[in-house]
Design a protein that fits this description.
- By secondary structure, chain A is of the alpha/beta class.
- Chain A is built from 9 helices and 6 strands; from the N terminus they run H-H-E-H-E-H-E-H-H-E-H-H-E-H-E.
- Chain A is globular.
- Chain B is an alpha/beta fold.
- In chain B, the strands form 2 sheets. Chain B has a 6-stranded parallel β-sheet, with helices on both faces. Chain B has a two-stranded antiparallel ribbon with strand order 5-6.
- In chain B, helix 2 links the parallel strand 1 and strand 2.
- In chain B, helix 1 packs across helix 2, helix 1 packs parallel to helix 7 and helix 3 runs parallel beside helix 5.
- Chain B starts with a helix and ends in an 8-residue tail after the last helix.
- In chain B, 44% of the residues are buried.
- Classes of the chains: A alpha/beta, B alpha/beta.
């Protein structure tokens, strides 16, 4: 065990986290004004910031991921810029709505997907090498769907928020940002 | 009450409202003059109410009508909670209830057709108003009051259904390509009509 881990075992993982405020700031740089969501465990810090009312972003709380995608589609039809925040299981649950609105209808949608269930021993490694299906199937599934994705594995990846957003707009379709570890407070 | 006749009444009262339609009401609206602020939720059974919610939040200055189906509502029943939680005062949710799925094609009974109380569900979830209407003249006479009240408002419109057409003499029906592209085309038409820009930022 490293000296850092001996001091506080959780600190060794902090380099894999991005802060909730940094994510909100990146959303604002993209021009995002709405978030639709079914909460994700690894993004609880982000949810808390969004729910506090000080982020400046509007939040629509949905009871299923289908709805989160559909509400986002309606907001887009009405002229708003939206991020859909879900976890990996939620994306799996919402695939038909993603198909209908994102792929068939060519609605630009930014998905922010938390890697729920990722084992800590996989941090810093390839999520495709995770032992857990809920983690390792995400990227291949997105490739099957034709949805480009960017990883958010630490502060150095913050530019990927804008990259994914820009891709969704330029391609008129969905793009995904994969949040690899707990968002920081 | 025929779905087309009910749609004619609602269409006459819409003013500059945006309409999101699906299922049988979509087929009926297709028989009326085109309105650029109408979009179909297809093929995405269950999604109309949530798309309508997004539009209502994005455009609070304008009424949004959702023309839903009973089976479509049941597919995303939790959407009643999502809508009531968001409290869109400009959302009017009409559910055309014929208690049948694939009406006019195969006429399969909807689960809960003889037991589920959709109006009670909407009330319990927190809609500002919820009512059931089963006669055309009643629908006409109540529309002004419905639209004068705050949303989210829920109206179950009880409608008839046509006889099934699929069978040994007509064993299959092919979906057109247009059925898979119209939702996106109509979303973009609404954005254009509302003056929304498709700007890329960042």
């Amino acid at each position: 065990m490293s000296a850092l881990a001996k001091e506080n075992p959780m600190k060794q993982f902090s380099k894999h986290s991005v802060s909730a405020q940094a994510m909100v700031d990146a959303f604002k740089r993209c021009g995002i004004d709405y978030v639709t969501t079914v909460p994700d465990m690894v993004q609880i810090a982000l949810h808390q910031l969004l729910n506090s009312g000080v982020s400046g972003l509007n939040v629509v709380h949905c009871t299923t991921e289908d709805q989160a995608i559909e509400v986002a589609g309606g907001l887009y039809a009405g002229g708003k810029n939206v991020a859909v925040i879900v976890q990996n299981q939620g994306l799996y649950a919402g695939i038909n709505s993603l198909r209908a609105l994102g792929l068939d209808s060519k609605v630009p949608l930014l998905f922010v997907i938390g890697q729920f269930g990722r084992e800590f021993s996989n941090l810093g490694g390839n999520p495709r090498d995770s032992k857990r299906r809920v983690v390792f199937m995400l990227e291949p599934l997105l490739e099957t769907l034709g949805v480009p994705y960017w990883r958010l594995e630490g502060p150095d990846d913050m530019g990927n928020v804008e990259a994914a957003w820009k891709s969704s707009r330029e391609r008129s379709g969905p793009a995904a940002l994969i949040v690899g570890h707990f968002v920081g407070w | 009450m025929k779905t087309l006749d009910a749609c004619k009444i609602l269409d006459a009262h819409r003013g500059d409202a945006i309409v999101v339609c699906t299922m049988g009401a979509m087929n009926a609206l297709d028989k009326l003059p085109l309105n650029p602020l109408t979009m179909a939720c297809v093929p995405l059974m269950g999604g109309a109410a949530s798309i309508g919610l997004g539009l209502a939040l994005a455009r609070p200055e304008r009424k949004v009508f959702v023309f839903d189906g009973d089976a479509s509502l049941l597919m995303e029943l939790g959407g009643l909670v999502t809508i009531s939680h968001a409290r869109p005062k400009n959302l009017f949710h009409f559910v055309f209830n014929n208690s049948i799925q694939f009406a006019g094609l195969g006429n399969l009974e909807t689960p809960g057709a003889r037991s589920a109380d959709l109006v009670a569900m909407a009330k319990a979830c927190g809609y500002e108003a919820a009512q059931r209407i089963d006669a055309l003249d009643d629908l006409e006479s109540r529309m002004k009051g419905i639209l004068a009240g705050p949303g989210p408002s829920f109206v179950e419109v009880v409608v008839e259904y046509d006889a099934p057409t699929l069978g040994t003499e007509n064993p299959a029906v092919e979906m057109t390509d247009e059925r898979f592209t119209r939702m996106g085309d109509e979303i973009r038409r609404i954005r254009h009509h509302l003056g929304c820009e498709a700007a890329v930022t960042a």
